Amino acid sequence: MSTKTSTPQLSSIPLPQLYDLLQPITVPNTSPNAKFTNWGLTFTCTPLAVFEPTTELQCEFILELARREGRVVRAVGVGHSPSDLACTTGYMLRTTKLDRLLEVHPDKRYIIAQAGITLDALHTELAKHGLAMINVGSISDQTLGGIVTTATHGTGINYGVISTHVMGLSLLLADGSRVFCSRQERPDLFIASICGLGSTGLILTVTLEVEPAFRLKEVQQTIQFHECVRSLDSLVTASEHVRFWWFPAADTMRVSSADRTVEPTKPSGSWLWHSLIGFHVVQFLLFVARFILPLNIFIGRFASWLVSTKVIAIDDSFRIFNMECRYPQHTTEWAIPYENTKACLHDLHDWLMHEFSDPNGLRPHFPIEVRFSDSDDIWLSPSNGQRTCWIGIVQFKPYGFEVPYRILFERFEAILCRHGGRPHWAKAHHLRPEALRKLYPRFDDFTRVLELVDPRGMFRNEYVERHIFGKTGPGYHNRVFKRHAASR
Fold first, then answer.
1. Considering just the CA atoms, what is the radius of gyration of the chain in Å?
2. DSSP E strands, 274-418
3. Which of 5, 238, 421, 478 has an alpha carbon 20 to 30 Å from 273's alpha carbon atom?
4. What SS3 state is found at 8?
5. What CA–CA distances, in Å, run from 166 to 160, 161, 172, 374, 461?
6. Cβ atoms of residues 41 and 483 within 8 Å
7. 73 and 94 in contact (C-beta within 8 Å)?
8. Is the pTM of this model over 0.90?
9. Sequence-distant (≥ 6) Cβ neighbours of residue 81 within 8 angstroms
10. Which residues are registered as beta bridge partners of 206?
11. Enclosing H/E stretch for 234
């Protein structure tokens, strides 16, 4: 279904009147919000204009202005992506005021929400109706539209990325038409959009499959790295939602196994360990280690010891799924075929042990997070056609200060690439169309849809032009929006 009833009316609005209509939702140039910096404090940009619409009609006004002036429009939520995915030199459309839960259908187990609602707010609203999301990633700060368009994932070898729970989308296309798409209606546009990097159109609403609210019982325990890898298959399949936190300096894996339960709530954690020591002391030590790099090995062992005891927690599902993201950070995450997991982890282990044994070697932070997802048929999903292991590495920025990370990430990514790695779309990576085409069999189908629904490239920011269409030059370089100078 497509409607264009508003387009003739919009096109007849005189330009000065269009500016007046947009003025109440335009962020003043003197406001700090006129500049965008992502949550990790790693990328920043100053858009031509920043709009904060509160209605879908105002979104139509923004797209009408962009059509007339030949501008790019980039939708952004809270800016949690640790890359320049949200950055633009064109118009920025903040979706965070389009944040309502519109419809709830408990009997049919689905809801309709505006794309700008954060997962934190959605959890609260769903709980009022005795409902919950089926699976959630490690954080809930992001907007619903943001996690859909990047195929963000949780963990569970029998659970797909969160986009697999999307039943339908309403979009504003570049020509001003509003369309609904699903697996039954405009299926190509739908499959392209549920991991579309914001490039198929402006997502207005998401129809999302949910389930009755549930609690999870999580068991966390620490085991040795090699024991974990030897028992990988049995560990991954023993519970519904399994993830590992690897502390290379201690050679340990923290195993988290969670299952649905009807047992009463039993939260875990203490202020002393998780706030005072686990957060503040560790951050101070990481800051000192900026000047004394070998200290990172001690900190990694100390952090592993802090969480070494067995812990059992029972709580609302999203509270177990989520974890403290702690500090601003550089991070990269790659997805590999599940059958390559053991070999890849062994290669990473050999590399890191070599670094630790070298007096001048790299001294990475911790932990390395390892998660799992089921295969899917979404064209650009890193889990497309394969059960998947996700491996992510991090370099924290204590108190926002820079740390070395580029060489570390390059060596990490080289190993992941050898094992068939596909990058998480929300995170910075180096791959271009020629490499992505080999990894994604339906890559050309995706670009075909973009050419069809947005031939002039209204929704193609620098990230999309660089990685999907192969644009080169100073304006499309990986570091064009980097907040700081290169760090080793």
1. 22
2. 311-316, 329-337, 368-373, 388-396
3. 238
4. helix
5. 11, 10, 17, 15, 25
6. yes
7. no
8. yes
9. 38, 146, 150, 426, 427
10. 113, 169
11. helix 232-238
